[in-house]
Write a structure and sequence with these properties.
The chain is of the alpha/beta class and about 240 residues long. It contains 7 helices and 10 strands. α3 packs across α4.
Length: about 240
Amino acid sequence: MIHLHGISKTVSSGGRPLTILHPLELHIPRGRSIAIVGPSGSGKSTLLGLIAGLDAPTTGRIVIDGDDITALGEDALARLRGRKIGFVFQSFHLVSSLTAFENVLVPLELAGHADPETRAATLLQMVGLDERGHHYPSQLSGGEQQRVAVARALANDPPLLLADEPTGNLDTANGRAIVDLLFGVNRAASTTLVLVTHDRELAALADIQIALRDGRVVERQERHAGVAPVVPPAVGTLLVH
């Protein structure tokens, strides 16, 4: 599903090159879940942005579902993201002037969905907000806003779901509900899930864990298919210390 070949990212800082991400190789099979963990500044959000095609690598190639996204122009990248990638952000990024229903409806209309209203209503029902669709983001709790964001990310049935600290602004109970939603979609629809998190308990639920430090992979753990995850007791701690 996702192949990273020699991917790196270097920027200029104070007139000198600063390497945020050193060259790495990574393969993520279709339908698997992967957690990218590490301290602040380790390069994990940079890596997620490269996979999303929101930034270009300094070296290497990124192939998603057979498409080399490093060879695509901005218009082609935008079309690919619309078809194949759903995003869930820490800060929700809902449109404040639109209702919950409209926030889910708009990407469906833009994609030319045959019955966008029914699809939007179904998605809100799936995330438990079918009775809150007429509310604006300011009228929803943080957990409810993130549920809307998940519904919006799933609007076009993307084969790839990217989540950047999806529980970072939520309390424990709401965070667990969002985790259950994300991994439920991963299992039920065989959607490939890539998430960035600092939460060791959340990371332990993924099939693959990648730990970054100073832009390098310092640890990789993988569960075999069919093996239940072992959730560690610590909450909110880093995988790498």
